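REVIEWER CHECKLIST
Item 1: Sequence provided? yes
Item 2: Single chain? yes
Item 3: Sequence as submitted:
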Amino acid sequence: MKPQEVAKSYDSIADRWHSEQFPRSNGIEQHKRAITFTELRGRALDIGCGSSGRILDFLLAEGFSPEGLDISLKMIELARRRHPDLIIHHADICEWKFPHSYDFISAWDSIWHVPLDQQERVLSQVLSNLTPQGICIFTTGGVDAPSEVSNSYMGPPMYHSALGITATLQCLAKAGCACRHLEYDQLPELHVYIVAQRVSEQSRQGDT
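Item 4: Structure as written out by the authors:
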């Protein structure tokens, strides 16, 4: 599936993320762990922010100045209603040009929708737009080799891909980042979250 097709699928179920029934604790404990690795509290970015606003709320409470980004127009409309004072970008992360660097980037259950042949480039771009000592938390499939799959688990068709654990860690190292935490947090599902920290200067796509 192309990113715009994934966007249409999320358009059709955006109200689920906006409803009171959505589990707003999803991913929050993992973000609390990630945030302990840095004292920075400047700009933050929630990639695939959706419409629940829970991660944006968490970042606000922690003293960051957060922005959101999502490819789903319906998700964006609902997100802007919930946070009218925040910058919420409607964009495809595969094509988006980062306007500046960020102290904290969250890509919770989002960039794993990026096509497999673009995964390494997109992840590298995300990591390269961290400030020195900045933190990125993201999810991926806990597989050993490159993998992609399509299913209708959530109702509409969805696509997921993963580089594989070894290749993902190699991508971190190339981007000047260290892996601070890696956890299979939903066993027996192969759902992995990784906390990466920028530890050396590499060329960045954006600027400060």
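Item 5: Key structural point noted by reviewer: The chain has one domain: 3-198.
Item 6: Recommendation: ____
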